[in-house]
Amino acid sequence: MANLSDYNTEKKYQAVVKKTERLTPADTEEVREILLEVKQPEFDCKVDQSFGVLVQTNGEFGRKFHHRLYSVADLPARENGKTLITMLVKRCSYVDDFSGEQYKGVASNYLCDRKVGDEITITGPFELPFSVPEDKNANLILIGMGTGIAPFRAFIKHIYHNVKDWKGRIRLFYGARSGLELLYLNEKDGDLTNYYDEETFKAFRALSPRPTWSDPIALDTAIEERAEEIFEMLSLNNTYVYVAGYEKVREKLDKAFANILGSRIKWETRKAELVVGDKWAEVIY
Known about the structure:
- The protein is of the alpha/beta class.
- The chain has two domains: 4-127, Elongation Factor Tu (Ef-tu), domain 3 (Beta Barrel); 139-284, Nucleotide-binding domain of ferredoxin-NADP reductase (FNR) module (Rossmann fold).
- It has helices spanning 106-112, 149-163, 219-224, 227-234, 249-261, 264-276; strands at residues 12-22, 31-38, 49-56, 65-71, 77-79, 82-90, 93-95, 102-104, 119-127, 139-145, 170-176, 201-207, 239-245, 280-284.
C-alpha cells in the first residue's frame, strides 16, 4: 500500500468551493459533502480515482504542506469546460498517545471550515485500487465504513448510469454508528436507495448496537446474517471484494468471512486467491 509521501504533489490545481453541506445531524459527528469546481480545464478525474488536498501548515520536520487523499464521492461532471468533483469530509480530531492532548485533524477541519467561494489547492488525480470488472456478470461485495461509502457511491452510480446492463450481483455493506449517520441511505440524501429496484443491487446497514456508548459497529453481524449468499458468492471465481474504511474493519471482515467459510484457514486461503487474482482491493485509512 502506497504512503502519502509516494504521491506526486508537484502538479497543483486550484479548486473553488461551489457547495458545502453538512449531511449528519448537529448532535452527531460532522460529515460534510463538498462540491468543488477545478479552475484549470486540463484537470480530469474519473470515478475510480482520488485526488489530494494540500493544506499549508507549520508541521514537524519543517513540512510546509499537509497532504490528504479523498475519493470521488459522485460522478464527476464537466461544466463550462471545468471539472466538478464531490468529496465527503468528516471533521476529525485525535488524542496524542504521549501527552493525552486532543488535536484537530489538519485537512478535515480546514475543509469543513471552508465557505462557498473559497479556493483550495488540490493534487492528482491518483488511481484507486477499485475498478469496474470488464465482465458484466461479475459479482461485487462492497464494504464501506463511515466516509468509506464515498468511492462506492460513485462506483455504483457509474455502473448503473454509464456501464448499464449489469448482470452480476452487487452487495453493499455500509456501516455507521447510528441510522442518522448513514450517508446516502436515508430519507434526506438517500440516492443509493434509487437502485433498490435493480434486481442486481442490495444494500445492508451495519449499525452500532449502542451508539451513545461508542459500541463498535456490528459489521461482522450484518455480513454473517447473509452467510448463505456470501458463502455462495465467495465460492465463485468471478466475485470481487472491495473494502474502504478504517483499520479495524479488517478484523471484523476476517472474523465474519472465517465464520462463513467454516474456519480461519479456509478464509485465509480464499482471500489469498482473491488477492492473487486481483479480485481483492482495499483503501484503509
